[in-house]
Every structure is written in C-alpha cells, then in structure tokens.
Please model this.
Amino acid sequence: RAAPSPPPSPPPPPPPLSHMPQQAQGREYALPPQCGGWPPSAALQGGGSCCGLDAAAMQRQQMPSAAGSMGAGRVGVPMPQAGVALRSGEMGARGGAGPGPSYCSSCDPSGRGDARGKDLAMSPRSRAVYKDFSHTLRSKETQVRGARYAQQLAERCLHDLPEAVHWRVHLEMADLAKREKSFGRARQLYRMATQLQPTAPQAWLEFAKMEEERGHFSRCEKILTLGLRHCPYHEALMLKGIKHLERMGELRAARSLLSQLQYVPVNQSWRTVLEGALLEARAGETAMARRVFKFLLHAAPWYGPVWFEACRFEQRCGHPQEALRVAEEGLKQLPRYGPLWFSVMRLLECALPNRHELVHATRAHVERGVRHISKDLVWKLWFEAAQVEERNGNLARSRSAYVKSVGACAPNLRWKVWLGGARSELSYSRFDVSQALLERALAESPPKTRAIVMLEQSRLYELRGDIEAARGLLRSARKSARSEWKVFLESVLLEMRSEATSRALREARRALEVHRGTGRLWAVLIQLEQASGVHHQLRVFQQALLEVPKSGEVWCEGARICLNPFSDCFNLEAAHNFLDFAIEFTPQYGDSFIEYLRLMMLVGAPDADVERLWQLCINAEPNYGTLWFHSKRTVLLTTRQVLESATELLRRELSEWRSVYDAAIARAARPDFRSTALAAVTAAMLARTGGSADSDAPAAPAPLPPPPLNLPASLPPVEAADFVTGSVALNRMHRQLGRLGLEERRALIYGGGMILP
Model:
C-alpha cells in the first residue's frame, strides 16, 4: 500500500528585519516585476495567469513585501517561535515575560491554532449561563442597583461557569467599569481577561480601545504588541495596529507591520493588505497605492470590496474614466456585487458630459443590472435611475422609474421611494404633488421613521411660506419622536431662517435639555449667542466642551469665534489649534476644512501645508456642513471639486474684505489686546478639565473693553454677524431669506443633501 502523503509544511517564519536585503527596506511594496502598471484588465483577459502565476500558484499568492525597520517599541507581529519579544522589557503591560506565543484558530496561518481555538468555544450549558448573565448585567435593574450588585452577579456566574469561560465574565465587567468611568478597575479586569485567555483577540482589542480613548497611546501600543504576540496575523489586531501607527505618524512602522504578511495566503490577509493600500492613499503616495491595488485585483479578484475601494481610489484621484473602467471590470468578475452597480450609476454622470449619451448608458446599465443584482437591491437600482432621469430633465421617465422601484420594494421601505419622489417633484416646483407624496410616505412609514417624513414636510411648508404650519409639524414631531435629535435641530434652524433669534435660542436650550450630548445642537447655540457678545459665546463653548469634548462641530465654532475680525478674542493661533481638534474628532464635518482653508489664506501658509489639508479632506470625504453644502453646487461634485469651489469663494471674499482682516490682525498684535484675548481662550481650553465651567465658582471680573477696530472710512457697512462663518455672503443670505429667489431659498432650506435609498 502506498505510503500516506506527508502533511503540508507550515509557511516559514518571516526573517528578522535586520536580515532583509537592503534593497527591500524602505516604504515601497516590492511587487513582482510582472505586475507592471495599472489597469488590471489586460492580465484578466483570456484566462491567463495573473503576474505570471498559474491558478494554483495564485491561491498561494503572497502580499508584496513592505520592508523597513519598525524601530524599538512599535507594534509588530513576532516570529512564530517561543520567547520572542519586540524589545527588551516590552512585556511589562502584564508584568513578567510571560509564556511564548500561542495561536488562535482564526489567525494562525499554519493551522496549529485549531486546538487552541477550542478553548474559546463554549458548551450549550455554559453559553446559556453566560448569555443570561450578559443580559442581566445590561438590564435597567442592574444599572439602578449599582456596581456592588453587578459584582455579586458576576461572582455567582463565575461559580456556575467553567474556568475556561471566566475571561468572558471579566470582559463584561471591564466594559461595565469603563462605562461607569472606573478606569482603574476596568484596566485590572482587562488584564485578568487577557491573562486567563491570551489567545482571545477580543480581550486585547477592547483593552487597547479603552487606553486609546483615554489618550494613553503608549499603553495602547504595548497592548496591541502583546495581542499580536499571542494572536499572530489576526486580522482585527493587525488592522488596529496599522491604524494606531498611522494615527501616531509612524508610517514606516505601519509599512513594516504590513510586510510581515508576506508568508500569509492572500485569502487570509487581503483585508489587511487593502488597508495598506488605503494607508498609502491617505499618505498621498498614489503611485504606491495604485501598485498595491493592482496586486490585490490580480491576486484576489473574487473579493468585491477590493474592486469597490480601487474604484473609489481612482475617483478620489480625479480619474472618473479610470474609476468607471475598474468598476466595469469588477462587474465582469462579480456580477452580483451590489455596491459596484451603484458606483457605475454615479460614475456615468461624472464621466459622460453628453446628456444624451449619459441617459442611454444609464438605462442600458439599469436593464442589465436588474437581471444580475440581488432581488433585494432591484428597487434601489430603479431609485437611483429615477434620480438620474430627474437631474437630466426627464420628469416622466423619472416617475416611471419610481413606479418600478415601488413595485420591487418591500412594504416597509416604500416610504423612502415616496420621499425621493416628493423631492424630485419639488425640483420642478410641483408643490401639490410633492405634498401628496409626503402624506403617503407618512401614512406608510414605520413609527420610528415618521419623524424624518415630518421633517421633510415642515421644510416644504417653510419653502411655501407657511411658517406656522412648519412649526406645528415640528412641534408634533418633537413629542412623538423625542429621541430624534434632528427634529430638534430643524426647529432651531427654522427659527434662525425666520430671523426669530430669541425663539431660536429658546428652542436650542430646550433641545439641549433632551439631547445634551449632541454636538450639533451645542454648535448652533454657540453661533446664536453671537448677538449677546463674544464672552457669552465663550461661556457656552466652555459648557459644550465639558459635555461633548470630542465634537468637531463645537471645536469649529470655537475657531470661528477666534477668526471673527470683530471678536474680542481674535486669535489665529488659537483658531489653528481648535481646527486641528475639529478635523481630528469629526472629519465628516466639511465646514472645518473650509474654515481651515480661510485660516491658511489669512496667514499665507506654504503650498505644501495647503496640499496636505486637501489630502486630509479628500481622504475624509466630508458629507455635511452649511459652508460645505453652499460650496457643493450639485450632488455630482467630488470632494476635490468642492474644495476648488470653496477656495474660489474664499479667495473672492478675502479679497473683498481684506481691509477688515488686516485691521483685526493689527489690533491683535497690540500687547493689551493679545493678553486679554489669550486669557479668554485659555479659560475656554481649561474648561476641558472641568474647572472653568463650575456654576458655583465666583464670577470672573468684567473684561476690559478692547481697543477699537480701525476700519477704512470708504468700507461698506459691515458688522460682526457678517463673519460668524467663513462666507459673508452666506451669512447675509441666512438673515435675509425672505428676499431671496425660490432656488436660493430651496438651497438654504434643504442644503446639499440628497435622498438616499
């Protein structure tokens, strides 16, 4: 009888970085020479091999090596052998050197972790006991009884569960301690969980997340290093480590971490390699990112997210034709992958300027997509087609597509189609039809989404001039959907657009009584307090920082206070710091980037700094903000095009009002003004520690009147309210809504947002 074939040998351990060839070290992924340039279509035709590999070899395809020294103390995957540490003494996060690395079944490429993976499994009885404990721990009764009752509950559960499951209980208790802000106790419990089950990636991830949220980045780094020692190549830990290193500015260490995936099969590492491509794109290394995307499209063409992200990458680079070609190639490989069908719909509008050609291409694409896409997504395809027809002036075709969307839609989602149809009818000033469709949407919408429809109805009433009807609808929505903060925000904005500042202030304060942790409500209140003076604004800013210290909208309003040339706290350096916080905490808020552009234009920043800001904005892809929507004239504009529009707007306005800013800069250079402004801004910053906003603290002495702002006599009339945001024209439009035309009023009321399926 023939002898059995030997088992496959595990992949060899990656060599130490010091033993890598000198030419492999650096920031580049060393791709095979056959993987030339973009696009991948040539290598995918004719059933040939990718990068010169046959089909069997492609299954074993490894990621391109990204070498480079990690440096001491950086997150990295250790060699799969016992007793390896990244640096001497780095095991101190748990104390002691600890055992050699073990493996979890989901992250060991050699398959040696299967036995270890059984430790993470639970018997049916243990699972039932643990599930009951978890539900009870999160119940309102436990929250009322407090931490002592929760501890007793955990002790009873530990008695009933086998020791192999105790780490899960400690993990639950650590999460409870973190929510109660007992961070020392949470840290002890996380350590116990990782000691009891070091091969459980979830424990390391939650521990690292807490330390990162607390700002202890070095601790987070050590925890991730230990986690990767015990769970080498684990996807979630690798992704967390890469993102942490990128946040710390250690791109070389992140690339080195990626290089250690070179011995892992691509079907186990493609998500991490994809993150590496996105990292290169965020760093502005577009050529390198394109090379990594090409590798993934050749080595792992069966994964939809790879095609989707490659398509978005080319679109962000301003290459819509190339993005469209990538998406079409992806649909040939994966004809049922929904996101690519919708990407092609939007790219056709960007890539085909001829309206006749665009309409015919879109209709052919939809007819083809209906035959391939999942039935659950057919209604969305018709919905998108209806919006394309409406934007190209074909109202009858748009209505027909909406009807087909309703026919393919589930009953609980039809309200979205009626909502989209109402917005389309409104673009043709068919108010009665729009109102009828909104009433039908309200009748068919589930209870949880009725507030969204009522909000849309109130905007229609406001556009038609019936302010009282709009107020009544929003009042009813606030009662029926108290948990929906957007309704409260819309009530404030309605009063602001109606020039009823006192009512807007009252609505904002009432809204914050219900939604105290909503940053956008605090931001609008700060802006409303401008009429009461800058020191009232600063007091609200201090309170907001205590409630929502990570709200980018609040930090942006603080920067606007410091950028207002009439402000007693005009301070460009403080504005710079505030905007850094704003784009760090809420990168989706586009106004922060536009205000940053205004600041850079005022100080004459170098082109390299401006380009870096543009790159940050393009990577973040902001999607809301008053200034952002004002600069985004149509929904088809890309982030780069919106930035170009915003730059032109700011350049025009700064040229018109340059004398005002020059006078403010000259006044800010005076020692008396500078000291007073710096003291006020410092007090606002200290509010983050809780000292400045104490209501029982003695009142601060009244500030001295600032020196006058010396403006030219020939300057047109201007006031502080004109500079509450970066656009004087936009600020005046909000205060004179009744004098604007229909299209301008509609743009201000509805913003640049579109109804999405």
